[in-house]
């Protein structure tokens, strides 16, 4: 189910790739930043996670995720809320954390709508917040969806600043005729 004003997971095949390749921990919790339609959070529940929490800056996306959880009969184990990563204090008790990061490092001075923020992270401010939370998430496996349209130099520099190392878990080329490569990165502490 896709509502109006929500980024479509079929525009790119990255959602399908990430959903299929995350190592969902059966009997544990899942946390997703930028949940969108809720496709990945719902997949986590269908693959055995006990609960899934998702945040998004788009109120239509939060509603869409809730409806998709209901459609798949997992609404009792799902919680979706309107929140920006910059206002989050922790990932809670989740053992697996994921964000399909909007790869494009846009100018900080731009004014972007919620759909544009699905693709743009001005000044990588969202990424900075995510890395800070990843650093303080002991016991959780933290993953980042990234791609070749992103700024790898900035990503590595920021990871180093937060004492993290991005480790490639899996990658693939887009099968949609677009020249994109998707990477599922695990963020690991360096020390």
Describe the protein's architecture and organization.
With about 190 residues, the chain is α/β, with parallel strands linked by helices. It contains 5 helices and 7 strands. A 7-stranded mixed sheet has the order 3-2-1-4-5-7-6, sandwiched between helices. Strand 1, helix 2 and strand 2 form a beta-alpha-beta unit. Helix 1 runs parallel beside helix 2. The protein starts with 13 loop residues before the first helix and ends with a strand.
Question: What's this model, at a glance?
Answer:
With 191 residues, the chain is an alpha/beta fold. The protein has helices at residues 14-21, 39-46, 59-71, 125-135, 152-161; strands at 29-33, 51-56, 78-82, 96-100, 141-147, 164-173, 181-189.
Q: Work out the radius of gyration.
A: 15 Å
Overall geometry comes to: globular
- What is the terminal separation in angstroms? 43 Å
Whole-number mean pLDDT: 91
Provide the low-confidence segments as ranges.
none
Classify the oligomer: single chain
**How would you write the strand order of the largest sheet?**
3-2-1-4-5-7-6
Per-chain topology:
Layout: H1 14-21, E1 29-33, H2 39-46, E2 51-56, H3 59-71, E3 78-82, E4 96-100, H4 125-135, E5 141-147, H5 152-161, E6 164-173, E7 181-189
Parallel strand pairs: 1-2, 1-4, 2-3, 4-5
Antiparallel strand pairs: 5-7, 6-7
Helix pairs in contact: 1-2
Key traits:
7-stranded mixed sheet, 191 residues, 7 strands, single chain, alpha/beta
């Amino acid at each position: 189910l896709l509502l109006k004003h929500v980024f479509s997971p079929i525009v790119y095949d990255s959602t399908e790739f990430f959903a299929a390749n995350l190592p969902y921990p059966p009997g544990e919790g899942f946390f997703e930043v930028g949940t969108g339609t809720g496709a990945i959070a719902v997949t986590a529940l269908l693959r055995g996670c006990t609960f899934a929490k998702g945040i998004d800056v788009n109120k239509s996306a939060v509603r869409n995720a809730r409806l998709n959880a209901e459609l798949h009969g997992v609404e009792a184990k799902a919680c979706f809320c309107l929140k920006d990563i910059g206002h989050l204090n922790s990932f809670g008790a989740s053992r697996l954390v994921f964000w399909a990061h909007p790869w494009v490092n846009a100018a900080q001075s731009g004014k972007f709508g919620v759909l544009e923020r699905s693709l743009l992270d001005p000044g990588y401010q969202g990424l900075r917040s995510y890395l800070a939370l990843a650093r303080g998430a002991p016991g959780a496996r933290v993953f980042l969806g990234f791609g070749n349209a992103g700024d790898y130099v900035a990503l590595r520099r920021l990871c180093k600043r937060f004492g993290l190392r991005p480790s490639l878990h899996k990658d693939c080329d887009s099968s949609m005729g677009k020249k994109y490569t998707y990477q599922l990165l695990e963020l690991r502490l360096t020390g």
